[in-house]
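re: that chain from earlier
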Amino acid sequence: MAVAVRCLLLAILVGLGPLGPAMAESPVLPPAPFKSPASGTRMVWENVDSGERKTVVFLQPEGMIVRFDWAGQRAATVGHFCPDCLDAGIGADGGAIAGLYPLAVGKGIRFTRNRGNLAWKDTIIVGGTDRITVPAGSFDTYVVWRRSRTPDDSWRAEQRNWYAPELGWMVRVEGFSSDGRRDHWQLVEVN
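^ sequence. v structure.
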């Protein structure tokens, strides 16, 4: 319970609201270095709200860039938690995101992403740990919050990721943005 309270306080301090249910269990996890799923790893994801399923196949990583095929479309993320960062020029060294690793409760970073004349301010915090059960199984996870916003606060998005160090990937993702987009995905299968 103390970790859940600490996570909530951390979230409030950086302006994040609590997303979803409170964490029931808080396992003690060792610091988690950056890890990517092996090339060829296949995961099936389910949208919790619609039941839609999508398959992800991981490609060869490049430094902290994790590349994958998401339902037939190529995608990439930098350091797991920033799919927008590659387009904003953050490279394989991870830039500011590298400061999150090894993951440990309480670590956090703030940075600004720029693309053309657009800018977003990001905060990513390792808020706690959670033992979570999804259709693919039960996992000890780091709970990582990300908040993105425009400098004038005309747009913002918040996301909570349950990252399983044993997989090198998330097992649940919840998020929303001020323009009405809502995401709630969970891992159904991994092989």
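The chain is about 5% helix and 45% strand.
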